[in-house]
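re: that chain from earlier
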Amino acid sequence: MRGQSLTCLLSALAFGSAGAAEVSKSEPARTANRDAFVCPVTVVNEGKGGVYGNEALDVVLNPGGKFVFAPGGAGFVDRDGALGIKVGWERRKKGPLQLSGRRLDGPAGPARAYIYDYGDIGFQPIYLVFPTPGCWEITGRVADASLTFVAVVEKIGDGPGKFEGLGSGWRVSR
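^ sequence. v structure.
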């Protein structure tokens, strides 16, 4: 099940094939807001993006460890101005996925996730929502396990389109 759902997800995101990827946990990237700060982004597959995970959770990360919000691009601008994007997770342990996040390079409220539960195990798409651009540490939790990654969030111009809101069945995790 894990391989099938991740393969579908990766194909949809044009990352190629699923499987173990080469990971560099400390690929430096400067954030636009603090030139002296070097964001220790989590880079997967030599910067090409792909699956990053452990025994409990997998997440699909973008190339270069960066989420870019540009006009006409992926993601959305939420009603409060926060930047959101769909991210695929895979739960290999039973339980609801919880997400939290904090900005590493400056003050900001916590990151949040909009989650529509797809059962107790397996594929779990979410909307990951960042209050501001910057360097973000995100932690996913399921059962007694967690997975953390660091990514740069960049907004170009006005960013992508506005978010229309959540339908019924969604929950917010912070």
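The chain has one domain: 2-161.
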